[in-house]
Amino acid sequence: MKPDWLDKKEYPFKPNFLELEAGKMHYIDEGEGPAIVMVHGTPTWSFMYRDLIKKLRKRYRCIAMDMIGFGLSDKPKDWSYKPRAHAANFEALMEHLQLRDITLLVHDFGAPIGLAYAIKHPENVQGVVMLNSWTWSLSKHQTFTKASKYLVGPLGKFLHSKLNVSNNTLIEELFKDADELPEPIKKHYMNGLGNPDEPVRNLACARELVGASKWYEELWKERKKIRNIPTLILWGERDKLVKIEALQRWKKFFHECYVIPFEDGGHFLQEENADEIAGYVSNFVKEEIKKKELIDN
Fold this sequence. Notes:
Elements: E1 16-20, E2 23-30, E3 35-39, H1 50-56, E4 61-65, H2 83-97, E5 102-108, H3 110-120, E6 125-133, H4 154-160, H5 167-174, H6 183-191, H7 204-207, H8 213-221, E7 231-236, H9 244-253, E8 257-262, H10 269-272, H11 274-296
Parallel strand pairs: 3-4, 3-5, 5-6, 6-7, 7-8
Antiparallel strand pairs: 1-2, 2-4
Helix pairs in contact: 1-11, 2-3, 5-6
Organism: Pontibacter chinhatensis
InterPro entries: AB_hydrolase_1, AB_hydrolase_fold, AB_hydrolase_sf, Epox_hydrolase-like
GO cellular component, one term: membrane
C-alpha cells in the first residue's frame, strides 16, 4: 500500500517487496529488456531515479530498490544499518530476481553497495554507470580531523555535521544547490526518511554511516576484480560533497572508462539532468550489447 504523501503521478510505479530478516525491502521493477539496476545513495531513495525509469523502461528493464530505512522500505529500529548489511540485502535482491548481464547504475553511497556486488559477482555485471561517488576509506585523509576520520565518505561527513537538525532541515540543506527543485519534490525525500521533524541523530541509517572505514578498505583492496568492466562516468562538476579528485581517481582506475562531465551539474544529476542522463545511459548499454555480440560471434 502506497503512503498518502506519495504523488502517484510523479512516482507511478507498481510496488514490489522482498521479505528480508530486517523487514520488507521495497523495489521497482519496470519495463522489459536488458536490465539496468539503480542503487541510490543516502539519505535518498528510488524516488531519485523516477524520471530515468520513466524514460528507460520503454526499452530496458529498470530495477531500483529502497535500502532498508529509506523510502517505502521498512525502518526497523533494531537493525544494524551498516554498509555491509545494505550490501548483503542488495545481493539478496539480485539473487531473488536472478539477474544476469546487468548494467549497474550507482550514485553516492550506492556505489560501494553496488560495487560490492560487482566485486563478488563480476560475471553478472556487463557495465557500470557511475554518478558522483567514492568507494574508499577516508580514514587517512590528511584534511580530516581526528574526530571525523572514521566517516565513510563525504556524505557521512556531511550527515555527521547535521545530526542535531531535523530531517526536514537536512533535506533542505542537501538540495539547496539543486536548480529550482520544487518543494513538493523535496518533501518526498523528507518523507522517505520517516518523520520530517525527527532529529537526524535518531536515524539509525545516519548513525551507521560512521565507523565503516574497515569495510571500505576491504572493498577497495578487491577493486581489481572490476577494473575491466566497461564504465560510463557522469559527473556533476559543481558537486560540493564529492570533489573532482574522486573523479580523477576513478578515471585512473577503470581500464575502459568514458567520462561525461556536467559543468553546471551538482551532486544530484538525476534531478537536474534526467533527460540527458537517460540518453547517455541508453547509448552506453546499446553499445556494450553490440560489442558483446561481436565478441560472442
